[in-house]
Amino acid sequence: MASQEIPSSGNSTAVELKENTSIVVLGASGDLAKKKTFPALFGLFFNGFLPPNLQIVGYARTKMDEEEFHKRVVQYIKTPIPQMKSKLKEFLELCTYVSGQYDTDEGFQDLEKHLAEREKAAYPDAKTKNRVFYMALPPSVFTVVAEGLKKNNYLKDGINRIVVEKPFGKDLESSREMMGKLKKLWQEDETFRIDHYLGKEMVKNLLILRFGNPVLDNSFNKNLISNVQITFKEPFGTEGRGGYFDEFGIIRDVMQNHLLQVLSILTMERPVSFSAEDIRDEKVKVLRFIPPIKMEEALLGQYSAKGDKPGYKDDDTVPKDSVSPTFAALVLHINSPKWEGVPFVLKAGKALNEQKTEIRIQYKDVTQGIFKDIARNELVIRVQPGESVYMKMNAKAPGLQMRTVATEMDLTYKRRFSDLKIPEAYEALILDAFKGDHSNFVRDDELDIAWKIFTPILHQIENDKPTPKSYEYGSRGPAELDDFITKHVGYTRANYQWPTVDAGKL
Ligand SMILES: NC(=O)C1=CN([C@@H]2O[C@H](COP(=O)(O)OP(=O)(O)OC[C@H]3O[C@@H](n4cnc5c(N)ncnc54)[C@H](OP(=O)(O)O)[C@@H]3O)[C@@H](O)[C@H]2O)C=CC1
Ligand SMILES: O=C1O[C@H](COP(=O)(O)O)[C@@H](O)[C@H](O)[C@H]1O
């Protein structure tokens, strides 16, 4: 058998919303809605993945008419082929907008009236209807909006789902408080906590790469692996989001969630089945082996201006004495029999020299015998851009001489899979929410354990206010990074560059 279809959810109680459904995007005037949510909904609509007669209703405080709303909806939607343009017109006919407050019943009652009218017009004979509420909102209003929706817009005779964006709290205590309030209103099976990295193609691929390839899976342990580095780099700063960012910092923004999720899938044991609960049980199990991160195993940085590029503190919404880190490298340990002694380094930064998210698994050196001086193996999983998997390995340099050369086995997606269209993470996740598949969403206990790992160091940073190391906009990060890696990983990488490193441009 060459390929095997994997069930989208092993959860027998998952119910797919196949018809008579509305999606309400709360915070429809915002950044996430225009950049990710509406383009993802259009992508699904264009490819025929949305239920027929779907109604899309935007809700936010900003007053705007439908024309203005449609302008925002289309702002980031790309229509490279002619059929997309006509489909976009159809899509916009489904998109309507209601303006209202988040903390009074009045707005939600207006929304209810509007939804009821749209639903009646779209599916007049429907006995049951369904609603998905998508919170593209800052966390400060999650709870009050969840309350307003439950009170005013919750269907008694249909399926209701609520999709919540990260960050889920600021530390263990606030997360528990927020989740506790949400749980009183919305059942766990109605709640979809998005971490959009779980929707990325290469993150979803991890399960198959590992458990579908015994040769890889059997090498994933402390006997063969020296260290693992998970890196997130962005070539732009916090432009326009300085206020939010200063309160949260890089650790809460991408490390406690996106990078930790990647780490847990990379290191978990094989799940019993593909069901959402079996997968998440294994993730929780491995996370429980990770002790809180120590300050001595952290390097914090903050970017400064370079040329015409502003420094972090040049943003008017950032306090001039801010010590909020825009870069961090953190060492995590998994004290399980399989992984003890292997350092896992999470690195993340804004305003760096390139865009890249990758997982780099370094195998141990050949310590003895005839090849003790050659380069070690490295397995690299490039999450973005230019999805690829390559194994750095040694071979004989072709020719009459007998010489080793560092080379690679290379699976670059754009080369291997022609006609490639990798779905956007948000497309995959919104579709999962319609299907009722929780596998790629964050479970409550998973969140709790993630905060236990990060809360002590976050509190220490807040209390002690250590000055982050400065690095220039567009650089590789603080100058101290290389020494930090060498100290904690015990190895400096050989000067070897993957020749197809700009696969993103293929
Ligand atoms: N932007 C991104 O790329 C990503 C964002 N996220 C998450 O998605 C959520 C939304 O993010 P984003 O769209 O960037 O946020 P925005 O700051 O753009 O906020 C979304 C909308 O919420 C309303 N709003 C903003 N601030 C407040 C406030 N203090 N009180 C009440 N309402 C407010 C505004 O609408 P109005 O005033 O019209 O009501 C705004 O248009 C966040 O939880 C974020 O962490 C996750 C991944 C990526
Ligand atoms: O959640 C977030 O993610 C984005 C990065 O997402 P990506 O899909 O472009 O890798 C990050 O820019 C943002 O700060 C953070 O809130």
UniProtKB/TrEMBL annotation:
Keywords: Carbohydrate metabolism, Glucose metabolism, NADP, Oxidoreductase. Belongs to the glucose-6-phosphate dehydrogenase family. It is an enzyme of class 1 (oxidoreductase). This is Glucose-6-phosphate 1-dehydrogenase. The keyword NADP applies. HAMAP family: G6PD. It comes from Mixia osmundae (strain CBS 9802 / IAM 14324 / JCM 22182 / KY 12970). Residues 24-205 form the Glucose-6-phosphate dehydrogenase NAD-binding domain. The gene is Mo05781. Coiled coil: none annotated. GO terms for molecular function: glucose-6-phosphate dehydrogenase activity; NADP binding. One of its GO terms (cellular component) is cytosol. Its EC number is 1.1.1.49. Pathway: Carbohydrate degradation; pentose phosphate pathway; D-ribulose 5-phosphate from D-glucose 6-phosphate (oxidative stage): step 1/3. The keyword NADP applies. GO terms for biological process: glucose metabolic process; pentose-phosphate shunt, oxidative branch. Catalyzes the rate-limiting step of the oxidative pentose-phosphate pathway, which represents a route for the dissimilation of carbohydrates besides glycolysis. The main function of this enzyme is to provide reducing power (NADPH) and pentose phosphates for fatty acid and nucleic acid synthesis. Residues 207-489 form the Glucose-6-phosphate dehydrogenase C-terminal domain. It catalyses: D-glucose 6-phosphate + NADP(+) = 6-phospho-D-glucono-1,5-lactone + NADPH + H(+).
